[in-house]
Write a structure and sequence with these properties.
- With about 550 residues, this protein is an all-alpha fold.
- Helix content is about 65%, strand content about 0%.
- It is built from 25 helices and 2 strands.
- Strands 1-2 form a two-stranded parallel sheet.
- Helix 20 packs antiparallel against helix 21.
- The longest helix has 29 residues.
- The chain is globular and about 65 Å long.
- The two termini are about 15 Å apart.
Length: about 550
């Protein structure tokens, strides 16, 4: 068996993931998360694992490089299936989390509204079909989830229901008007949007009556967490060893941050934050500022020969009118990875709108929130430039078929868990590279050190919460008391960590893994070592686990 059967199953069972990846055979469908559908999916994935184990890794005529990537893909596919079976049978995911259902339904339509991969009429027809399927999809949640459910997951799902009322009402109307849909097509889409909106109203009513689950339900359990670490992240260290390490690193990072903040501003971190906030573009120059910083980042990376910068232009634009009002209620990403199999000439990066006709107070609030530091560190270096965007460009060229698609942003998380340590690790590591190059100001270096501490705190929460060693309230307190996050943001972060075990730790595992591998290769290669060759060599594998990349870079083989 080749990987063809694996991918056919992957896209068919996950049609929304398929749309975001640029595979459009299932654009009119939603997944089957009924109890029967989940059972059937688990059985199918077990069968796929058996077939993978029996199949030759590569065609007899394949080159050595093709054989290597074929073995890599087969090993990762098997690990992915093992994790997916465990998730499917767990009460932590589709069988227990109503927010996943809301997100899947909402983004099944958003994936068609926000990306011009096909003529508007084709996308509207597919959206109408998905809108028509939403009532049945949400109705099956009651049978699959039952009750009770964690209260914070329910609150998140109910907020998404508020977003659905906006998106499937004024949002769809605006989209159809802007797309100049024919009267017949617009009527069809609006009729099904009305049905979807009513279905979300009924879903919200059901959610309101759900009794809260006991606090321990926020944890996936040590067994599941260990599986995610070992099979998803290919981590060979024990959970206890990781936790001891990251706790020590958090202490060091916070001490270093305090030292840097005091050395930079007499008032310490609060003064640094205020000085960063007041350094922002003028409203008339707001959108252009993103592009200028992006170009400066590219020039710096190329001048320093950090990596091969694959050309894939990006344009920073305001969140489109059809999704703007619903976005605050949803898992709405400013930067979504370009679909590997859809190739727009210019990728659009949606940013917070700042318009001349806004009230002055709101305009100023948004400019302060999207100041020069946030634009440079987050929207440019981490996401739109050297970080995710360059990594995604390399991934599209990878010989690894899984590496090409694993880190695609989907409804609630990336498509394949295995892609996280490289995708998120590289994006954080990219900011470290730009700091090393001198691209950051002193104030920005303090902000970046705070981001490192926050990353380490998230790893502590992830490893502790899901093993039952910290409660959700204790995780929230860690974010507020040690990292200084505002209480609402801290709670939202802890809730997100509870929903997706193993996801928060991937940032630290990936970033540290790349740093460690670079130090190792520099020591081994001496004067022959160059950043560009090393980084291109890491990125050529696409979004696969960093520990696996390290094995391959060292020349180790897989069975």
């Amino acid at each position: 068996m080749t990987l063809d059967a694996f991918f056919e199953s992957y896209y068919r069972l996950r049609p929304v993931n398929a749309t975001y990846t640029g595979v459009h055979d299932h654009d009119d469908r939603l997944p089957d998360w009924s109890p029967e559908g989940l059972d059937a999916a688990a059985d199918e994935m077990r069968s796929l694992r058996r077939d993978l184990a029996r199949a030759p890794a590569a065609h007899p005529a394949a080159s050595d490089d093709e054989r290597t990537f074929a073995r890599v893909d087969r090993a990762i596919a098997d690990a992915f299936l093992e994790i997916q079976i465990a998730e499917t049978e767990s009460g932590h995911f589709a069988r227990g989390n109503p927010s996943l259902w809301a997100g899947e339904a909402l983004f099944s339509v958003l994936s068609l509204m926000t990306r011009d991969f096909a003529p508007a009429g084709e996308r509207i027809e597919a959206a109408a079909a998905r809108l028509a399927a939403i009532p049945g999809f949400l109705a099956s949640a009651a049978r699959t989830i039952g009750s009770p459910a964690p209260a914070d997951w329910v609150r998140r799902a109910r907020r998404e229901c508020e977003g659905a009322a906006i998106l499937f009402g004024p949002g769809v109307d605006t989209w159809l008007d802007r797309a100049r849909a024919s009267d017949a097509l617009a009527s069809l889409a609006r009729r099904h949007a009305d049905s979807a909106r009513r279905a979300f109203e009924a879903f919200d009513t059901w959610l309101a009556a759900l009794p809260p689950a006991p606090p321990e339900r926020y944890a996936c359990g040590a067994e599941m967490l260990d599986l995610l670490l070992a099979r998803g992240h290919w981590c060979t260290r024990s959970r206890a060893e990781l936790l001891a390490d990251v706790r020590e690193r958090l202490d060091d990072a916070l001490a270093r941050h305090d030292e840097m903040a005091r050395a930079t501003a007499p008032g310490g971190w609060p003064e640094v934050q205020e000085r960063l906030a007041v350094q922002h573009p003028r409203a008339t120059d707001y959108y252009a500022a993103y592009g200028r910083v992006w170009e400066a980042c590219r020039c710096e990376a190329e001048a320093r020969e950090l990596v091969t910068w694959i050309e894939h232009p990006i344009r920073y634009v305001p969140i489109p009118p059809e999704t703007r009002d619903a976005a605050p209620y949803l898992y709405y990403l400013f930067y979504r990875s370009p679909a590997p199999f859809d190739r727009p000439a210019v990728h659009e990066y949606a940013v917070t709108p700042v318009e001349a006709d806004m009230p002055a107070s709101e305009r100023e609030r948004r400019l302060r929130a999207n100041n020069d530091s946030v634009i440079k560190l987050n929207h440019v270096v981490h996401h739109g430039a050297l970080g995710h965007h360059v990594q995604n460009a390399h991934a599209r060229r990878s010989t690894s078929r899984i590496g090409q698609v694993a880190a695609v942003d989907c409804a609630s998380r990336i498509g394949m868990f295995c892609g996280g340590t490289l995708a998120e690790g590289w994006a954080c590591y990219a900011t470290d590279l730009m700091e090393e190059s001198g691209f950051l100001t002193e104030l920005e270096r303090v902000a970046e050190q705070h981001a490192r501490a926050r990353q380490l705190a998230r790893a502590v929460v992830d490893l502790s919460l899901h093993a039952g060693e910290m409660t959700l309230d204790e995780c929230t307190a860690l974010y507020t008391d040690r990292v200084g996050m505002p209480a609402p943001a801290a709670r939202a972060e802890a809730v997100k960590n509870s929903m997706f075990p193993g996801a928060a730790v991937m940032y630290w595992l990936g970033t540290q893994g790349i740093h460690d591998l670079r130090a190792e290769r520099r020591a081994a290669e001496g004067e022959r070592f160059t950043n560009r060759v090393f980084h291109d060599g890491v990125l050529r594998y696409g979004a696969i686990p960093v520990p696996l990349i390290a094995r391959l870079v060292r020349g180790e083989t897989l069975a």
